[in-house]
Amino acid sequence: MDSALTLAIAVDALGKEQVRAVMLPSSFTSSMSLEDAQAMAQDLGVRYDIVSIEAMMSAAMSSLQSLFEGKPVDLTEENLQARARGVLLMALSNKHGELLLTTGNKSEMAVGYATLYGDMCGGLAVLKDLTKRWVYALSHYRNRLGRVIPERILTRAPSAELRPDQTDQDSLPPYDQLDAVIEAYIEEGLSISSIVDKGFDRAMVERVVRLIRLSEYKRQQSAIGLKVTRCAFGRDWRFPITSRQFN
Q1: Does residue 211 have a pLDDT over 70?
Q2: For residue 12, what is the domain's CATH number?
Q3: N or C: which terminal CB in the chain sees fewer CB atoms within 10 Å?
Q4: How many whole angstroms separate alpha carbon 110 and alpha carbon 129?
Q5: Cα distances (Å, whole numbers) of residue 193 to 102, 110, 173, 231, 241
Q6: Structural domain harbouring 36
Q7: Distances (CA, A) of 237 to 113, 129, 232
Q8: What is the DSSP string of the chain?
Q9: CB atoms closer than 10 angstroms to residue 24
Q10: Distance from C-alpha of 77 to C-alpha of 231, rounded to nearest angstrom
């Protein structure tokens, strides 16, 4: 969803001749994703390339095999996929002198649901100040102006496709709840107690706020983003990485 909206915005802003879309499939990439990505690129008329990450993943896992011996498969292998994609995209950016657009949204940036030196690679984060529910709202609005985002992208469960049958909600609260807490804490400056008083479960709110605080080190290494709310990550948001004193 995020990549699709970013692509649509790029074409609207720059024109199709100035935009390149790259698909970086792995063994976990669904046929649906491949079909929808190709269809959208064709509809928009942008250059579309496919670069598999399988060879890079095989080489990395082979190099690390002895060091990973006895360890179960976990988030490490998922992050390696994101970082393989980041390496390839930055190589294309360097070789062709093109700016890589980072596709992460404010929900991901808030709670750290993004991989440093992986999907966080890039020079401009177009959706950095939009929570996931606003990403969907803007996508539906863009399609009302003229359909460019395939319907299946709008209706399927969000997934990073880094393991079999993965969905975002395996790791995060439902986006309607997550985004409401993020917006209340970051944009409205409300305390945990004040957010709970709005009717949210305290344990969920405390978990989300904890993730926000723990993820500051990632945000300080992230690409600059477009500001659309009154409190965007960057100049508007100042939070210490190490201090134990919280509001």
Answers
A1: yes
A2: 3.40.50.620
A3: C
A4: 10
A5: 34, 19, 19, 20, 22
A6: 2-168
A7: 18, 11, 6
A8: -HHHHHHHHHHHHH-GGG-EEEE---TT--HHHHHHHHHHHHHHT-EEEE--SHHHHHHHHHHHHHHHTTPPP-HHHHHHHHHHHHHHHHHHHHHHT-PPEE---HHHHHHT-S-TTTTT-SSEETTTT--HHHHHHHHHHHHHHS--S-HHHHHSPP---SSTT--GGGTS--HHHHHHHHIIIIIS---HHHHHTTT--HHHHHHHHHHHHHTHHHHTTSPEE---SSS-TTTT----SS-----
A9: 19
A10: 34
What six digits make up the tokens of 84? Answer: 């393989």
Q: Is residue 186 part of a domain?
A: no
Evaluate whether residue 203 is within a structural domain: no
The pLDDT confidence band at residue 183, using thresholds 50, 70 and 90, is very high
Judge whether 140 lies within some domain. Answer: yes
Give the count of domains, the chain. 1
pLDDT digits (tens, 9 = 90+) for 56-93: 999 999 999 999 999 999 999 999 999 999 999 999 99
Alpha-carbon gap, residue 129 to 233, rounded angstroms: 7
pLDDT digits 0-9 by tens, 95-115: 999 999 999 999 999 999 999
The amino acid at 228: V
What phi and psi, each to the nearest 5 degrees, are found at residue 78?
Answer: -65, -45
